[in-house]
Amino acid sequence: MNNPTAQATGSFVEDADVPEYNVYGADWSETVEEAMRLGQQRIVMNMGPQHPSTHGVLRVMLEIEGETVTEARAGIGYLHTGIEKNMEYRTWTQGVTFCTRMDYVASMTQELAYCLGIEKLLGITDDIPERASILRVLMAELTRIGSHLVAVGTGGNELGATTIMTTAFIGREETFKVIEMITGLRTNNNYIRPGGVSQGLPEGGIEALRAMVPEVKLRLDELSALQMENPILKGRLKNVAKVDLPAATALGITGPILRATGLPYDLRKAEPYCGYETYDFQVPTSTDSDAWARMVLRMEECYESLKIVEQCIDRLEKLGDGPVMVADKKIAWPAQLSIGSDGQGNSPEHIRHIMGESMEALIHHFKLVTEGFDVPAGQVYQAIEGPKGLLGVHLVSDGGAKPWRAHFRDPGFNNLQALSIMCEGGQVADVVVAIASIDMVLGGVDR
Amino acid sequence: MSDNNEIQPVEAEGRSPLTLINVREGLFGAKGDTSGFDGLVKPVQMPGASERPYGEWFDGVVDVLEELLGDKAAEAIEYVVVARGELTLYIARDHLYEVAQHLRDDQDLRFEMCLGVSGVHYPADKGRELHAVYPMQSITHNRRLRVEVAVDDNDPHIPSLCAIYPMNNWHERETWDFFGIIFDGHPSLARIEMPDDWVGHPQRKDYPLGGIPIEYKGAEVPSPGERRQYR
Fold first, then answer.
1. Any chain B CB within 8 A of the CB of A320?
2. β-strands B77-83, B86-91 pairing
3. How far is Cα B118 from Cα A414, in angstroms, rounded to an integer?
4. Is the CB of residue B30 less than 8 Å away from at least one CB of chain A?
């Protein structure tokens, strides 16, 4: 028994007196018997980092007495990939490809916050074409629906309700179909770029969007019918993992968890960006402060997001084709993509122009793609309402073509701090519910 | 664009108010290249201190804070910068705790949430190499401002704000982990993202990006941090 023992801070100490058990699922009862035999009342349990219910690689250290959790600590960092550091070595435009991979369930949320930050640094916030802003709102809301469906779906799956997960994922797939049609990729889209978006709606885009809305609504209805009167789900979620308003404020919690305590704080209303003030939608709230309220709010937010999506479609149809990038050729990405025989490629008109018609256009293309554009020195903070809460981006420029510092305040990183007060004093089985109700994605937490 | 980016320094009384972000040398990061630009030396500075009136609600907030700090105001608030529609207060670290207390508790300020702390490393800014940037959010008044604290690399201590803003617990651990800023009074200032036994603070500018060179037959492509690149 000379193995190191886990401590609450995540550090290891040598303690020869503490027996250690390794549990791999099925032999749990044997372990309990062994613990009983040794007369150990207090057990420190390590959950994760590779555990199906931890939404990635989260490690939870639990101190339990019987079935009661007396202390819970989250250990993170298992998915740290140094994205922020990497971004300092790439151009501002290339940074989009990196930050989209942070919270990979809500990719375009990071893209949006990052690009809005760059635009604020450049001072071109008001020059973004309306069409691009609408497409951004459209994508942000589709991403929100996808993220909430994953939160609700995996949350149900972890309680054994596989149908909740499959239904949610089918609904999310409907949004993915359209997202793929418009951006070229299902996730990690690299769609929202500094100055606009990478491309406008393809042919048949409006029709595909219109066809998607009832499909998603159908799945949302189905999911609601499956959940809202389900006695098992109610029993597992109601009055579990409670965090009230003072605690939420003290822990800086935002998003559905905060709104479930009764505070209607949503940056889309409080501090509108991309023209959110012109859309008609509600911010659902609840005062129950428990896991059930959070789940219900996420479902209601999906319906509100669909309302915004419908308004976006109307506006896009009315606006028709046109630019989706700023007019400034020193910032706007020069090339447009088009579908070639191999499925994807550069627009033939653009290739013809730079290769056959204009030497200056070729030089311009080359400089902008290899070197990028310079951003005036200074710093900005841009916050947007992500599906999981307030997503903040702190950008510092040294006047060059690459960020001096890019820091992302992922809402999951902050909200995960609440795990301790959600779990302590509760049952071990409720830890899974608490983690699901926080809805963090470890890619975003660890970056 | 950056060539025209001349910042007119405004001297706040007796202080050197500008953050020197970087001193850029050359154009590609390689010495002796054929461009002839390798001798270029270009200091880049942050926007300088602003003078009153700051505009919007900024004057009111600074007034209230100065009144609450009393005699200590001149010492505590190093200088105020208004740029890109955002208010930044540079606060001396000895007074950070008190300033944060006022920012949270005064009814005219009410910055209930601190959105974490973002570290920034400015190796060229001698004596003020490490900056801790605290975005403060007021839900009551729907305002946001930035508090920035600069410390010497050889004395990287900043008081922890965990007692005032409990949400800063993990954020301060992250900034310690990545920049080596020590937050005095933090309940458990352990590494959070890197392994416990990691050596160094990876987000500092003197810490290389890492990566291994990619080998091809007869050639080698250096890792991204060591490639020739525009700067």
1. no
2. antiparallel
3. 13
4. no
Instruction: Compare CB distances from A401 to B116, B174, B230 and report the shortest one's residue.
Output: B230
CA distances from A431 to A25, A354, A410 (A): 17, 58, 22
If one counts every other C-beta atom within 10 angstroms of the C-beta of residue B66, the result is 14
Quick check: A378 and B83 CB within 8 A?
Answer: yes
Q: Where are the alpha helices (DSSP H) in A41-161?
A: 83-87, 94-99, 107-122, 130-158
- Which parts of chain B have pLDDT scores under 70? 1-18, 28-35, 231
* Whether A71 contacts chain B with CB within 8 A: no
Cβ-count burial of A160 within 10 angstroms (0-12 exposed, 13-18 middle, 19+ buried)?
exposed
Mean pLDDT of chain B: 83
Nearest CA in chain B to A81: B193
A127-145 tens-digit pLDDT: 999 999 999 999 999 999 9
Question: Which residues from B are below 8 Å from A92, CB to CB?
Answer: none
Distance of alpha carbon A29 from alpha carbon B204, whole angstroms: 49
For residue B218, the distance in angstroms to the closest alpha carbon of chain A comes to 25
Q: Torsion-angle region of residue A346: left (phi > 0), alpha (psi -120 to 50) or beta? A: beta
Nearest-CB residue to B22 (from A270, A374, A398): A398
Per CB-CB distance under 8 Å, the chain B contacts of A371 are 230
User: Which of B118, B144, B190 lies closest to A407 in CB terms?
Assistant: B118
* A379 in B contact zone (CB under 8 Å): yes
Query: Which of B86, B195, B210 has the CB atom closest to A380's CB atom?
Result: B86
CA distances from A148 to A295, A301, A441, B5, B195 (A): 9, 8, 12, 43, 31
Q: Inter-chain contact A370–B230, Cβ cutoff 8 Å?
A: yes
Q: Which sign, positive or negative, has the C-alpha torsion B189, B168, A255, A178? A: negative
Residue for token pair 């209601």 = A300
For residue B53, give the 3-state DSSP assignment: coil
Q: What is the C-alpha R_g of chain A? A: 24
Give the pLDDT of residue B31.
63
Identify whether the C-beta of residue A312 lies closer than 8 Å to the C-beta of residue A267. no
**Which pLDDT band, with edges at 50, 70 and 90, does A7 fall under?**
very low
Q: Closest Cα of chain A to B123: distance in Å?
A: 12
Interface check B2 vs A, CB under 8 A: yes
Q: Is residue B108 exposed (0-12), middle (13-18) or buried (19+ Cβ within 10 Å)?
A: middle
Are A89 and B191 inside 8 Å of each other by CB?
no
Nearest to A445 by CA among A413, A420, A407: A413
The CA-atom distances, in angstroms, between A363 and each of A43, A367, A368 are 67, 6, 8
Q: What's the ipTM?
A: 0.85
Read off the tokens for A275.
Answer: 């023209």
Cis? peptide before B53, omega within 30° of 0 = yes
The pLDDT tens digits of the residues spanning A148-196 come to 999 999 888 888 888 999 999 999 999 999 999 898 888 898 899 999 9
What is the DSSP secondary-structure string of B130-192? Answer: EEEEEEEEETTTTEEEEEEEEE-TTS-EEE--TTT-TTHHHHHHHHHHHH--EEET-TT---S
A176 near B CB under 8 A: no
CB contacts of A254 in chain B (<8 Å) are 113
